[in-house]
Amino acid sequence: MAGHSSNKPSPPEVGRLLVVAYFDVERFSDVRRAVDAAARDCGLDSEKALDFVTAVNEVMTNAIRHGGGRGELRLWETDQLMCEVRDQGAGFPATDYLNRTEPPTPSPAGGMGLWIAQRTSDGMTVDSGPAGTTVRISAQLRASAG
């Protein structure tokens, strides 16, 4: 099953590629630091960078906890800072987690990560199925012209 939000991020083939990294528990902190540095280098202020890195953290954590213990992250810049995290987990019904206005009820399996990521980014899409999950999040870098 797949789901997506209405603010769909651009494809990763567009823009300037900043970070490509495979991560697991051991490399998690290094990749998070690389995302934080890139976010600040792209001009996000401290608060917006913290929000974006929080969103990335939640998505990476989900990949480790629910997606097979590892994932791949790509970060690129257009008029937005874009991050894509892919895993090879069993997938889940993504539409249940998108565009929520109220936080989900936490459970032993989790439940808050995508809600936090949605709240701390400007856009989020989730595509999930038996071959894995891809989550894309975005942060607006500059005001749009017009």
Structure summary:
The protein is α+β, with helices and mostly antiparallel strands. Helices cover 29% and strands 29% of the residues. The protein contains three helices and six strands.
Description:
With 146 residues, the protein is α+β, with helices and mostly antiparallel strands. The protein has one domain: Histidine kinase-like ATPase, C-terminal domain (Heat Shock Protein 90), CATH 3.30.565.10. It is built from three helices and six strands; from the N terminus they run E-E-H-H-E-E-H-E-E. It has helices spanning 28-41, 46-66, 113-119; strands at residues 2-4, 16-23, 71-77, 80-87, 123-129, 132-140. A hairpin with a 2-residue loop joins strand 3 and strand 4 (80-87). The model is unreliable at 1-7 (pLDDT under 50).
- Provide the CATH top-level class: Alpha Beta
Morphology call? globular
**Corresponding CATH architecture:** 2-Layer Sandwich
How would you write the strand order of the largest sheet? 1-5-6-4-3-2
Estimate the helix proportion, in percent: 25-40%
Q: Structural class, judged by helices and strands?
A: alpha+beta
The figure for the number of domains is 1
Which labels suit this protein?
6-stranded antiparallel sheet; 3 helices; disordered N terminus; single chain; alpha+beta; 146 residues
Layout of secondary structure:
Blueprint: E1 2-4, E2 16-23, H1 28-41, H2 46-66, E3 71-77, E4 80-87, H3 113-119, E5 123-129, E6 132-140
Antiparallel strand pairs: 1-5, 2-3, 3-4, 4-6, 5-6
Helix pairs in contact: 1-2, 2-3
